[in-house]
Amino acid sequence: MARSAIVVGAGTSGSIVTRRLVDAGYDVTLIEAGGYDTNPAIHEPSRAGELWHAAEDWDYYTVPQEHAAGRRLHLPRGKVTGGSHALNAMIWVRCAAADFDGWESAGATGWGWSEVLPVYEAIENDLLPVTDDYPLVPIQQSIIDAAGEEGLAHNPDYNGGTLDGVSQEQVTMRGGRRVNTWMAYVRPVEDASNLRIVTDAEVHSVIVEDGVAVGVRLTSVAEPVEASELRADEVILAAGALGSPAILLRSGIGPREDLEALGIDVVRDAPAVGANLHDHLLSPVIFTTARPVGAPEPGVSVTQTHLFWRSRDDLAEPDTQPIHFSVPMWGELEPRPGVHGPGDGFSLMAGLVTPHSRGALRLSGPAVEDPLLIDLAALEDDRDVAALAASVRQARRIGARPALAAEWGATEAYPGPDVPDAEVEDWVRRTAVTYHHQVGTCRMGSDPDAVVDPRLRVNGIAGLRVIDASVMPTITTGNTNAPAAVIGERGALFVLEDAG
Hints:
Layout: E1 4-8, H1 12-23, E2 27-31, H2 40-43, E3 60-61, E4 74-75, H3 97-105, H4 113-125, H5 138-149, E5 165-168, E6 173-174, E7 177-178, H6 181-186, E8 195-198, E9 201-209, E10 212-220, E11 227-231, E12 234-237, H7 240-250, E13 253-254, H8 256-261, E14 268-269, E15 281-283, E16 286-288, E17 303-308, E18 323-325, E19 345-352, E20 360-363, E21 372-375, H9 382-399, H10 402-408, E22 411-414, H11 424-431, E23 433-434, E24 464-466, H12 481-498
Parallel strand pairs: 1-2, 1-12, 2-8, 12-24, 13-14
Antiparallel strand pairs: 3-4, 5-17, 6-7, 9-10, 10-11, 15-19, 15-23, 16-19, 16-22, 17-18, 18-19, 20-21
């Protein structure tokens, strides 16, 4: 009889795991809390901004962030087939070799760069298209030129071994359309006889009997009061850095004191579940232009370039990764008529990619309807403020270079001339937002406190794995979608190897 598996989450990692297990003959049930990716804005890169706060967004918010002006930060997460890879900018970054070697040296045995690199190469040459073969819109080319005038090298392939410099983004697109792992891995086999796809259904918890995970408790989103149970030989959580720890906590796997306070029976006292939460952060530098930039074009992402830069000379790898948008990313800021011009412009979003701050995710109650208490502890560590502020200052300088100031008539709208460089730290605290890269809440390692071991098995619970970005011990130097794909491939391999 074929082995059976439940995969929770049809995002980047879960879609890959599903395909690999289906191909290996497993009977697979893939559960997705959202619906199918029928929204045209998912597939049209120029419309990605429409997906925030839409039905396809979990629309999470943090608790008030003490060190970020007391603000509650919006955390967009994909609630749809494709997961957050259905909402993001499709940027593919292998990140730094030192990231993975650091994981291994800290106890994530088998996750060094020598093991990871071949997985990247296989993904990029197999099902998922990764390309920078597309024309830059004029403002994006000028941003590259201005960065060169600022003294940054042009890096034609930041995935070639060196991150530093300004680059055209490598993205997962084909013919001007988004391609994610749901589309590339699962859709070709969605009618397979050994695959069942369940959408619009949220997993409340894992069923654990005598220390073994035997299934999940399922709650229909349409009918929250109706729940059912599904059982399988393997249970794999791929619900992301917010969803996977929440399911574990509702299952009674987490810090004993917290669980008992909520009336949740403790299955395993695991203090690290939900801890170690961290994220990349952005802070906006917005310019208006005298020369029209133009509206977003169909089939063209509103971001096409980014750069990696070290805010201090003594750093071994870049700690900042600004991302550049062909539109003014006003967000909660207000364009002032008569001051900020007719509306054309661009944004150089300063970016922090090596955060030292660590937060945590906790439950407010035992039900799926109870909101998650998400605390990034954003900018709690002063080193994060210093690096992000340095990135903001750099973005201001780039925007003032001739390729933008002279050729486009670029004028800084925000922070604006009334904010001197000496006050940029305050600007950062008032404006920092997520880069959409939460990780770490189900940390892997070889120590007893790790949530999962290096083969992604939940410690103390047989038959249960977590395979998604939540297992990252520390965040990667760059966008986390590509590493999440590697985690999916390696996690699926571990399942198959351990099953013999």
